[in-house]
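Sorry, can you check?
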Amino acid sequence: MKKFFAKFSRKTWIVVGVIGVIVIAALFAVFNQGEAPETYQTAKAERGDLAAVVGATGTVRAKQSAVLTWSTTGTVGAVNAEVGQQIARGDILASLDKQSLNQSVIMAEADLVTAQKALEDLLDSDTARAQAARDLDAAEDAYEKAYNYRKGLNGKITITETYLDHGVPKVRYVKGYADAETIKDADQKLALAEAKLNDAKRAYERVKDGADPAEVAAAEARVAAAKATLAQALIVAPFSGVVTQAFPFVGDQVNAGTTAFRVDDLSNLLVDVQVSEVDINTISVGQAATLTFDAIIGKTYEGEVVQVGQAGDTVQGVVNFTVTVQITNADEAVKPGMTAAVNIVVNEVKDVILIPNRAVRLVNGERVVYLLVNGQPVQVKVELGASSDTQSVLTKGDIKAGDPIILNPPTMNMLMFGG
């Protein structure tokens, strides 16, 4: 027997084996005809609308957020806010006991009173304007006298002489020429009078409509400096929002830099997501988005793109752009720090044939789907357009609404053997 089989080459045995496998497969297909349709899962092609999306994840943040810290050392004397409390800009959230403050802060209170009084006097008093008007009048008179004196010289002067006529004093007026020294002195006096007049005019212009703006600015600066020093003993809300963290208790000893509160504007919640450079040019401000949270089961929120980054960041060779989405219907369940799954709608098409993505296969470089016709799979070439996570738009292909599409199409081998 061994000699008989040895007459055949190894190549011959391979061919025989392949033929045997084909025959067995064919017989299996014949005996199992009619059972294959039961193995196919189908869905009808449907006509409808589709929203193409770009998906990403990000973390919720408030549009405005601030961590408030103490600016000086002292003992907490009052706490006026707690977690969850709504606050308005300028509210005093906590303060330090005055007796625990350093001397410069304590003295700032007296400095503030003095500076405010000086500012009020400056703004309300008419003394400066009245004095400036009086000084201007005096300067004008002095200039006029100097001018007339110098003009009267014109290179000549009148000299008066006193003599005795028979023992009686007489006055004689003799015209002569002014000397250079007299003219020079008159010129200098006239120049000085003119300079003083100009100064008086400028001074009057500054105060004729009220206090000198420069003096007002200086007084306001002194008030602001005193207030800033006093504010070191206070924690003041920088904007309206909600207290999301609170740390101080009355009696606590704090230092400069110790955290007191965190405040967030929860009326405007944003999510920053990273979008690939492949998709960034499909995204623009104003596009709608949907958001879901692992921490909030069964609820979908709406959003809108409010900012699209114009410069990408490269991380491990991948270029991403930051896109900011505002949650338009956020409620108390959404909190800063939560992770959100964001789908940005980049394209919407209506009244089109939709194909399930799981039914699409690639055969010889072409996309195909399989229809169930008379219990048998029939291959149909298709071209697809916009797509979502689950469906794509049919742009070309012999498929109409209602056709049964096979979701788990057969493999090539099954088709070859009639499966």
